[in-house]
Amino acid sequence: MIINDKSLKSLRETFGSKLQENVRLSNFTTMNVGGPADVLMIAHSANQLAEIVSVIWKMGLPLYVLGSGSNLLVSDEGLRAVVIINRAHNIKVNTRTRPYTIWAESGALMVNMGKKLTLRGLSGMEWAATIPGTVGGAVYGNAGAFGKDISRNLISADILHKESGREMWECSRLEYTYRSSKIKRSSESAVILSTLFHMKSGEVDQIKAKIDDLRSRRAKIQPPGASVGSVFRNPPDDSAGRLIEAAGLKGRTFGGAIISPKHANFIINQKSASAQDVFDLLVLARNTVKKKFGIELMPEIEVLGKWDNLPKFLQSERRPTVVHK
To answer: Would the pTM count as exceeding 0.85?
Structure first.
């Protein structure tokens, strides 16, 4: 089902002033590109997110849940769907019982969770304080850095599943693989509402020093500017950035987008890029590496919306309904 006059009228009657129409998604993505969403709403708590999602599912309308909009490329035509911006950002730290835990709603920023952990002297996820994006996006895509990932600390996640309702999923049920989870791979619809992580005690000064060191290392490697983050996953025993650079594509431009001269696995919006510019550079990088080295790079990002001549390797990464980023 699509958003038509009838469904739009029903949405207006149900959500009233909470409903925004024809909103450009470039304002909600880290790449600063993307056309309009037919309908947009903002959820400010996990329970509110669950309520809105449940209503949209009952209406049978297409739905996307976005966090910070990282690792995401929305087409210039936008999304003919309901888009929920996840601003459920509450975080609670428990140091009264063992193991120490931190509970976070899925819209909480990873950097903010890192600040909470530092203040409370909790160690084990210092790397997480250095990455962009939300907790929900990290759990959805098994985000990681510096040799670690979210699956090492996750205890459970509060999940709203379209068919089975609201459930608590243990970490093992998410069936994590490199930069992927059961929810990300599935064609079924599920929304991450909140999460629980186990932590260990540490010294505040040491935790802060480690985070500062990791941030410094990241800043030396990764380029500034508007981007989707790492475009491709690293293939086994190699680096996507090294392969793209070896293919001679560092600094290659298309329209307003450029393959970063600093790190070739990043595409930067030079203020005037369209989503199509970014898309064309992504496809060029993938095809050139495959032709020169016989290695098929797989995207770490997801593409949403309508695209002409979408390659098969991107079709396999598309989610028909819900996506967390």
So the answer is: yes
